[in-house]
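Table S4 entry, Mitochondrial S-adenosylmethionine carrier protein.
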Amino acid sequence: MERREFVASLVAGGCAGMCVDLTLFPLDTIKTRLQSQQGFYKAGGFRGIYAGVPSAAVGSFPNAAAFFVTYECTKSLLGAGGAVAAPHVAPVTHMLAASLGEIVACLIRVPTEVVKQRTQASPSSTTYHMLLATFREEGVRGLYRGFGSTVLREIPFSLVQFPLWEYLKTLWSWRQGHTLYSWQAAVCGAFAGAVAAFVTTPLDVVKTRIMLAKAGSTTASGNIPVVLYDVWKSRGLTGLFAGSIPRMTFISVGGFIFLGAYEKVRRTLL
């Protein structure tokens, strides 16, 4: 990957991430409260809908930038030559690139996500106080609570979203005979995001439960199968798919903005 492409991916990814996270933050708060153990209204209901937004604002640019730089670099490396460059393995290339991108991005995303979600579920606290409380009580380990469950959620999500997005773009471009406009890439992103969001909702519920759990509790230990079973046992299928509608809405609209903005900014810079 050339330096110009690297910078374009960095800036485009960061700008796209900020656009989505700040625009759709209220939907994310509603989803978090629906998935919390204490329930929607006890977690704050519709009060303080922007609680935790500073954490999202700080983390969104570097998080999205890290993902797309890794994604584009990996695609470039895997497509540079040899068997991996064959068209029939393009989905595998996209899956590997997206998976690596998510692992790198989670190093930035998880600490900001922990602070953000805890503030969303306790709207009387500020982001700064929640950060201090988490660090004081649990240290750096507390800020990375749920890292494994977040990666386990994000990788399957990206394994569905990005190959589907790339496939839809290729199909639409082929049918109309020219490269897609940015808004068309955004529509493909919205559809791919909605599908990926729905099928990975149970993993998102587990991630939220682990991040919000009290230190020292069974849930806080991060045992994903145990948490999945507990949710199933207490709330059934409804519990496993709690928050699926706001999550699908958030990610579908977010996919439209995120991937559309990414394509537009990247093309402009290149």
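The chain has one domain: 3-269.
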